Every structure is written in structure tokens, then in C-alpha cells.
Amino acid sequence: MNYNEIISEHSVPIKMWTQGVPVEAAAEQQLRNIASLPIIYKHIAVMPDVHLGKGATIGSVIPSYKAIIPAAVGVDLGCGMMACKTTLVAADLPDNLLPLRLAIEQAVPHGREFNRKQRDTGSWGRPPEEVNQAWAKLKGEFEVLCVKEPKLANTNNHNHLGTLGTGNHFIEICLDEHGSVWVMLHSGSRGVGNAIGNRYIEKAKQDAERNNVHLPDQDLAYFEEGSEHFHDYVEAVDWAQRFAQANREVMMQRVIAVMQKIITKPFQTHMEAINCHHNYVQKESHFGEDVYVTRKGAVSAAKGQLGIIPGSMGAKSFIVRGKGNADSFNSCSHGAGRIMSRNEAKRQFTVDDQVAATLGVECRKDSNVIDEIPMAYKDIDAVMQAQADLVEVVYTLKQVLCVKG
Q1: Is 186 a catalytic residue?
Q2: Would you say domain 4-339+377-404 falls under CATH 3.90.1860.10?
Q3: Which residue among 43, 186, 278, 334 is the active-site one?
Q4: Does this model's pTM top 0.90?
Q5: Where does the chain cross the membrane (predicted)?
Q6: What does the pLDDT look like over 139-175, one tens digit per residue?
């Protein structure tokens, strides 16, 4: 048995793949709160990148019977990773990667900065044609969602499609252990997903209060099948998760187009490609029952399924193949996992620390990205060792270029 198990009275068990990695006491208490809910099925599976989240713990797999906890799914609905292998090798990349980084930053809106006179620089002023084409496939269903929730029409939706965002979202050029060039990126459903998530979290809280449902944490309010908002929430989340997937596809398309302009050697892409969520909910069959599985900072790792586990800025990342571990509900971690808050990282580290930690990586090295310094995250090697019975490593990637929001 490669996991630790917490068994408490009046709760389902908590199975933790955390051997050799730190776990905050506050995160453990949060897990106990979730495990005490009457809707939890069988047990909770905890990944080695586990850390404190809002209501529900990041790095957890939460199976629920005939109910969903909106705050467990979160507000970056469908956040996830995309990676594709190219026919390029390390020697095909230019010696100076700065022009390529600047070109990618020009091609994909990122970050968030605006004032009263200007648009948010992290969104499109005038979306390009590939964004419009992708939006056309999503627009009709979005308009239906807006009939039920009119405020969604005022969100960044069309003009956020194909944009990166902020925080730990990134675009990277990586090399695997054989010298092949990969493109990898991380983003989700942007402003519209955030609005959907927050709207239904509030509805769930209101329902719990109205129905006098006792909860250890108000953020663990849930919708049960057949309740007033359940179907609308499932419909909205499904749309947001498809928006997130399309968002990553558009960005990948634009990054590759930039590479084809700057790198003179013709090359092919998508030799091997993965586009996977790590903040999402879907109905699955486990131990003979159909249940809703919420992966909050976790990736599906069904037997033979490819997934992506990124390290931190300046660390290794992994393309993995799932082993189909039933006790983990066929899941693995979504990354290294933070060991300190963003504010704490800014207090502890300097720009010089950031420069040293990202040696050999073409990326921003300034005070605005110190919160993403590798030392703010768990050791990715320890994280991978702790989940050796969940996945096998197919490729080990090391970034040579990184764009941050």
C-alpha cells in the first residue's frame, strides 16, 4: 500500500499519496471536513501536490453520489494543460530565444492590466479569425446559459478565448530527454468560467442556508440531483470545460504559427498531443457505481491514458501514462503543489533568487513573477515518487522558454 489512510468516525476514509512530501495541517483539516459530508462516495483520494484551497483542498479527488460541490470544482472551470511534441530537436532552436519569447507574448494576450481608458491587455481588442471560428462553436450554447443567468453576458467570454491569464498559467517550449522540442501550456476558462463558478457557489450556499443544511464549511455547500439549480450548474460547467479546452487549442495554434515564422526549418507538430483538464467534474463509474468525480488539482490517469504533470518554473515536467489505480479513482497529481502562499514567496525571495532558480530558461526575471519561483513549490521528484503506483513517466521535459501571465 503506497498511500497513508486517515479513518475518522462519521467520515469516509481519506487515502493520501503523500509519502515523502509535506502536507499542511490546515489542508488535512479541510480534507476531514469534506470527508464528513453525507454525499461523499467510498473515500477521498489525495494527491502528493495537495495544499490548502478555498473550501476544498487542491490536489484532491472527491467522488460524490448524486450531488456536486461547486466550490470543490472551483472557479477556473476546466483549467488544465496541453502539450504537443514537434519534429524539431534542440539544435533547431535559435541560440537566442528572447525574440521567440517576445513574439509569443505578442501573439497570445497574457497577464491582466487595464485602466479606464484602455482594455485589459490580457484580452483581445479585436479577436483574430481563429478565435472567432472557435467562438462560433461555443456561442449558441452560451446564449442559452445567458437566458438563465443574464449577468454572464457581461463577462469576458469571446475576447478571453485564446488568452493565457495570470498566476501559474504559462506557455513553455521544452526539451525531452531525447532532445525533441515540445510546446506546453496551462490555462482554463478565464473570466467567463470564473463568473460561472462564483455564481453557482453562491447559489449553493443560499440553498444550504434556506434548507438549514449543516456544513463544516459554507464553501462545501452542494447541489443534489433534482434540486433547483443542479441541472443548470452541470450544463454551465460542461460548457465552461469545453471553452477551456478550446482556449488551449487556440493558444497552441497561435504559438506554433509564431514558431514557424521564426524557426526557418520546416517542422510538424502534434506528433503526440494531450489536452487534459485538472479542475473539473464529470460522471464516471467506480466500484460498480456511477458517481460525480471532482478533480480539484488532479488529472485523470486511467490505464494507458496520457497526462501532463508540470513542475514549477525552472523545474522538470512530465508526460505520464496512467496505471488505472482504482483507489485513486484513476487519478494523479496536476503538478508539484505550492508549499507557501504567493505573498510569502514574495517576502522570502528576491529577484536574484529568481534569476538563479531559472538559470538557462528564457523567461521574465522580475519582481512580478517571484511568487512563481520554484522554491515556492514542492520538490517535483518527491511528488513523482509518491505517486509511482498511479502513473509511469513517458517523457521528462525541461523548459528552455517560459511565458508567464
Answers
A1: no
A2: yes
A3: 334
A4: yes
A5: none
A6: 999 999 999 999 999 999 999 999 999 988 999 999 9
